[in-house]
From TrEMBL:
NCBIfam families per record: ffh
PANTHER family: SIGNAL RECOGNITION PARTICLE 54K PROTEIN SRP54 (PTHR11564), SIGNAL RECOGNITION PARTICLE SUBUNIT SRP54 (PTHR11564:SF5)
Pfam families in the cross-refs: SRP54 (PF00448), SRP54_N (PF02881), SRP_SPB (PF02978)
Listed name of the protein: Signal recognition particle protein
Lineage start: Bacteria, Bacillati, Bacillota, Bacilli, Lactobacillales
Length: 443
């Protein structure tokens, strides 16, 4: 989501890094470039002003930290201030002392309330073994209840609904009773949205709030709407005193400004980000990781966490070792295929790694999950020697693999090429780019 900004900041930092000494004029020029880059990314202008002022003050007054040259110092300050701007630390979900914890999803139409309700329920189920229930309180769009039901079915969560002819506040009242009977530990209320904030909607939401005393009022905003998302957040917060924000569609072509301004403007934390339409595409928002992602240092921690969730830890360590030694072979590849499908598209994972977001090699690298079965078939046609020594591959062996797996030769060629590319990239990431990152931070 931040490619443009990242590229600009990286260029600015690169320029600075090449200088043996940073003069006042250099600093001013750097600040000007950062300011423009942030404005270009659609960050709120007031937020930008404060940000630049703080960075400038800190950079001017900074003691020289051991081991850091002035340019690295500035990178460090920018990174810290980006983190501060976005809220410093992750804000966990509030939990009620007695069940149920009530979560009210609010936001404009199409922001992603219903989808996010589903994602959140799935997360709670998986991570907390929770037993959530939805209340269908959007009665204005006939399709809304059906949509919630489809989402709920896909993750096996019950929905309380009373059709579209009952007052939403009454639906919520009865839904709460139902949840008490069923002893659900979470109630997630899917409310209606409007194209823009209006009084009738707010009245209804306030009534639902007064009735349920929610532990969370999560405002769902579409990151793609940029400054409008920030205005929306201000509007909802004024009337509902929201407890947190979920920023959706960060996977889209956004400039990222909303992510960077909402916290500073409203004072309310971003708790989650949505990065895709699937139920799995909801991540806890970590300001520090987002800052390093924006600075182009990769979202290493998110990646590691994702990997840990799906990988056997020992196996992951083994893989890491093999990648470093460049001994990652086709057997490992076969093992990884299953794991990777669980982690999401390989390209997405690679993009989160340091320096990878803008790597031109990634533009050509694309592994369709449907191809995995074919890849498996090809590898399974290899001899043990070929699997453990990928360098053995040659045209006649490839021809044999094509015949053995029943796949066309072009596909075999492509697979071998992709495997080699991947091996090279993994090696680069585990060795080269870590060094690059440490270098950048003066480590
Ligand atoms: P609501 O009107 O606020 O309930 O919004 P919906 O949940 O119906 O979402 C509107 C559209 O946005 C749907 O097509 C969703 O699939 C899509 N959507 C929601 N969250 C995300 C996200 O994080 N990324 C992407 N790409 N699409 C999303
Ligand atoms: Mg909806």
């Amino acid at each position: 989501a931040f490619e443009g900004l990242t590229e600009r900041l990286q260029k600015t930092m690169e320029k600075l890094r090449r200088k043996p000494k940073v003069t006042d004029a250099d600093l001013r020029e750097t600040m000007r470039e950062i300011r423009l880059a942030l404005l270009e990314a659609d960050v709120n202008f007031k937020v930008v002003k404060d940000f630049v002022k703080t960075v400038q003050a800190k950079a001017t007054g900074a003691e020289v930290l051991k081991g850091l040259n002035p340019a690295q110092q500035i990178v460090k300050i920018v990174n810290e201030e980006l983190t501060n701007m976005m809220g410093e630390t992750a804000a966990p979900l509030n939990k009620a002392p007695h069940i149920p914890t009530v979560i009210m999803m609010v936001g404009l139409q199409g922001a992603g309330k219903t989808t996010t309700a589903g994602k959140l329920a799935l997360k709670l189920k998986e991570e907390d073994q929770a037993r959530p229930m939805f209340i269908a309180a959007d009665v204005y769009r006939p399709a809304a209840i059906t949509q919630l039901q489809q989402v709920a079915d896909s993750i096996d969560v019950p929905v309380f609904e009373m059709g579209t002819d009952v007052d939403p506040v009454e639906i919520v009242r009865q839904g709460m009773t139902q949840a008490a009977i069923q002893k659900n530990d979470y109630v997630i209320i899917d409310t209606a949205g409007r194209l823009q904030i209006d009084e009738a909607l707010m009245d209804e939401l306030v009534k639902i709030k007064e009735l349920t005393h929610p532990n969370e009022i999560l405002l769902v905003v579409d990151a793609m709407t940029g400054q409008n998302a920030v205005n929306t957040a201000e509007g909802f917060d004024d009337q509902l005193d929201i407890t947190g924000v979920v920023l959706t569609k960060l996977d889209g072509d956004t400039r990222g400004g909303a992510a960077m301004s909402i916290r500073a403007v409203t004072g309310k934390p971003i708790k989650f980000v949505g990065e895709g339409e699937k139920m799995e595409n909801l991540d806890v928002f970590y300001p520090d990781r987002m800052a390093s992602r924006i600075l182009g240092m990769g979202d290493m921690l998110t990646l590691i966490e994702k990997a840990q969730k799906n990988f056997d830890e020992e196996q992951a360590a083994e893989t890491m070792r093999k990648m470093q030694e460049n001994s990652f072979d086709y057997n490992d590849f076969l093992d990884q295929i299953d794991q990777m499908t669980k982690m999401g598209p390989l390209e997405d994972l690679l993009k989160m790694m340091p320096g990878m977001a803008n790597n031109p090699a990634l533009k050509n690298l694309s592994i369709d999950p449907k191809q995995f079965l074919h890849i498996k078939a090809i590898i399974q046609s290899m001899t043990e020697a070929e699997r453990t020594n990928p360098d053995l591959m040659n045209p006649s062996r490839k021809k044999r693999l094509a015949a053995g797996s029943g796949r066309p030769i072009v596909e075999v060629n492509r697979m071998v090429k992709q495997f080699d590319q991947m091996r090279k990239m993994m090696n680069q990431i585990t060795n080269g780019n870590f060094a690059g990152m440490q270098n950048m931070m003066g480590g």
